[in-house]
Amino acid sequence: MRPLRPLAALLVTAAALSGCAEDPASVAADYPSEDIRLLVPYTAGGPTDIAARALGAHLEGELGRPVVVENLPGASGATAYTELIGSQPDGHTLSMTALPTAVLNYLANDVGYTREDFAPIGVVTQVPSGIVVPAGSPHQDLESLFEAARQDPQAVTVGTPGATNTHAAETRRITELHDVPLTVVPFEGNAEVQTALLGGNVAAGFVNLSQDVLPAIESGELRLLAVGTEERLPYADAPTFVELGYPELTQSTATFGVIAPAETPDEVVSTLEGALRSASEDEAVVEALDPRYVPEEFLGSADLAGLFTETEETFRDVVGG
Amino acid sequence: MGISDGIVQGFAVALDPVNLLYVFAGVLIGTVIGVLPGLGPTATIALLLPLTYTIEPATAVILLAGIYYGSMYGGTITSVLLRLPGEAASVVTTFDGYQMARQGRAGPALGIAAIGSFVGGILSVLGLMLLAPPLADLAVSFGPPEYVALTALGILLVTYLGSGSPLKSLSMAALGLLLATVGQDPITGTTRFTFGSVALFDGLDFVAVAMGLFGVGEILHSLERTDKVQAVTRRIRHIWPTRQDLRDSSGAIARGSVLGFVIGVLPGGGGVISSLASYALEKRRAKDPSRFGRGAIEGVAGPETANNASSTSAFIPLLTLGIPANVVLALIFGALLIQGVTPGPQLISEEPEIFWGVIASMVVGNVMLLVLNIPLVGVFVQLLRVRAGVLAAFALLVTMAGVFSVNNDSFDMWVVLVFGVIGWLMKKTGFEPGPLVLAFVLGSIMERAFRQSMLLSGGSLDVFVTRPLSGGLLAVMAAVVVLSLVMARRRRAAFRHVEPEGEADLGTAPTPGRDTRRTSDSVDTDVPSAPGER
């Protein structure tokens, strides 16, 4: 980062000058006036961290100030969000966020913040989820799996990659809304669910269709029965829950986005939103993020805010119940 | 991938210049800390843990593994020359090694230890190559009930085998299990014992706890030493053992390799236990057991071989099941987790460069150690002149900076300091931190697996006995309880009629801090006195 500083300083001067020349009255013109911290609520080297670093490099070019990526892992994001809302709402401290984990966490625990404390900037990636069974499973489709569960309420165990993320909550919603008795067995991460599936210790898994699982689906080790998106996915051959008759089950997609503290000036938010939009159109950034997960249409501040509200409404009654 | 492909890939990784450098750094650091009393492999790896996350996962494990088996070589040097075990596993070597040195045979003692360590290490690597992949295949079918049985077995073994008083060990293991429950419930996500603090949501950080108990605790404890160690200046000649020596010890080396390998695989096994077991075996087999304790070369060759063999085979449960067999492996487990790699049955197929690279690096590392050790013995001994205060201040600085860098969280620094004080007090009162840390790591695995088992079985405990693997493991556990009671009695009897010097408490207290302290005339790792006096 250090060798970039003189360059960044130069860019800032250039940006400031051109800004002045074009629109001297703009309030956002002097933003950013210092280095920007981009907090990552997960460990270095993980998918969110890699996304943040790719994004940070782009923002640095767009905004003309160094963007320092800082990992504050732990407590399902609460460590990073607590740091975020405690900082000045001037756009110089931002955080990556993951939905619905961020919402589920404050719904279930007293962490000292809610979505009201955040100013959403925009969506970076969306990773869908799906129900998988091992290749040797007798269930060729979702109906067969659910039928087995209705026959014997103990029969179908569903491994999920965590206790507090969307998959466990979404599986319980299947049971509640459609009367399909499924037993949620939380594991730690996709890899453990995968091992449990291959070892025949759980009947099915509700997992993120992230880069670590897709190869097993492509090789046929795991069979994808349904995906939790509105539309079918171009890279995974399976029907959606919606077309199978479970229209509510669209809340399992994990959304990764950028947020600022509430009270951040609107001009600053829209400057940042613009920078994110240009990142989503930049080929190098998209490649680093994995093109499969970058939304086709850029989702900005209002869209992310909508997702926060929607997630909260969906899971308010499921969590803790 | 076949085993031969794996080996080829492994050597491609291990012979990469960067990795070669790290193997070398690892075995060198290992030897050095093996020589320095007090700072064992556990403390060192705990201290270096956070620094490894900037390097490749395979390289990180290569480095840490190098430190581990390197320390097994290094510990021998001071055991033989000064009767000062540099790390726990070398305690046994003081019995006969130091006597050999007194008889002017320090050279052959060190030579045979290096040769034995090399043979044990290499044979154990071969065993690891052949055994781990099929075990990993089997491990895929390991479900939550099997993990419960395995972790329970591990905690049981570490408390039974690891230290002097089973009661103290059990209480520490219980404390470890209790500490493991802090944080979010693994099944419901509800927070427990967090006292409303977000910093405790994920529980206590394992790295911080281990660094506190082992690293800072050890540093504080070492500062209490007032005596300065005097280095031996006597020249060491004839390192290469005579033909007679080799003939005498070849059997001990062969048996030590097998014994060490088997014990290393067992949860709770590793260093000290393997060297003790080998010593006991050699003594029982000897035609004239009274030679032991008076400079019998088999008494050096067997245990030294066994401890190195066990330090290699201890990697098997970690790399195939994701279960650390002992505390050092628990730290290496931590290093992999920091890297985002979860060790488990899929490791060999998904991260072959880690598995095979580490194995191949062990071959390279053992060769380096053999080359390093024989000519450089004198140099390593000079290390004992470094002042404890200087070392301690430096180590503390590295620890604090290191632990902060893992999570960028100053809370972890407090955890280190608090557990450092606890570790220091534990050492003073004869409680071992080992069972605590291992139970802390295994406890969270066990709890999650137990709760998963209950979900899978619909709340019936039958699941643990009706599944053949977990039922078998539980049977092993029952056998261990019975056997350990019988063994403890027998071991006590075996050592009773040996001259009391140096091994009076061997049967019950294999760890150096305890057993040597109670033996008034032997040198303690913690409180060394000038060896010239004897």
In words, what does this structure look like?
The complex is a heterodimer of chains A (321) and B (534). Chain A has eleven helices and ten strands. In chain A, strand 6 (157-160), helix 6 (166-178) and strand 7 (183-186) form a beta-alpha-beta unit. Chain A has helices spanning 4-22, 47-63, 78-85, 101-108, 142-151, 166-178, 190-198, 214-218, 266-281, 283-289, 301-315; strands at 36-40, 67-71, 93-99, 118-127, 129-134, 157-160, 183-186, 204-208, 222-227, 254-261. Chain A is 40% helix and 19% strand. Chain A is an alpha/beta fold. A two-stranded antiparallel ribbon of chain B has the order 1-2. Chain B is globular and about 65 Å long. Chain B has 534 residues and is mostly helical. The interface between A and B is large, with 40 and 35 residues.
> Helix and strand succession of chain B?
HHHHHHHHEEHHHHHHHHHHHHHH
Q: What is the domain total for the residues of chain B?
A: 1
Highest-level CATH class of the largest domain in chain A: Alpha Beta
Q: Give the proportion of residues in helices of chain A.
A: 25-40%
- Residue stretches of chain A low in confidence (pLDDT < 50, at least 5 long) are 14-27
According to DSSP, the number of beta strands of chain B is 2
Please state the structural category of chain A: alpha/beta
Oligomer: heterodimer
Protein name (chain B): Putative tricarboxylic transport membrane protein
Pfam families (chain B): TctA
Organism (chain B): Geodermatophilus siccatus
Keywords (chain B): Membrane, Transmembrane, Transmembrane helix
